[in-house]
Amino acid sequence: MTKASLDKETFIALLDVLIPARDESLPGAGSLGIGDALEAELGESIALVAEGLAALDEKAQASGFSSFAGLPAERRTTPVNEVAVAIPGFVEVLTYHAYGFYYGDPRVVVALGLKAEPAYPGGYELEPGNLAKLDTVRQSGKLYREV
Q: What is the C-alpha separation between 87 and 91, in angstroms, rounded?
């Protein structure tokens, strides 16, 4: 079985629709350059995404444009909504994965005014906890069955 390939220009244009730029400090998801990492993460969903991208290109071509990426930015939302209805899961799967890569990118974290470093160690101070509070949980035994 061969892996589906994604049209890069359409993919980047779609990512910018799903997570648009807010200003100069927060670019859209496609412009941020997360496309390759996101594509690698899609796994079995890549065929669904490839199908959705092809449908977006077909809609753009029916409107007289060479591809979805060739559509003016202000005209991209309608075809995305139409394809989202026609191909259930397409936008949801892509958005789910895109959010993780986008909001995990250090440039976005800094632009949001947060620390771009790990929470622990060296990031946020963690107070020592009282692990004795877990004794009742440890003593309760298994609350599940093994299959």
A: 8
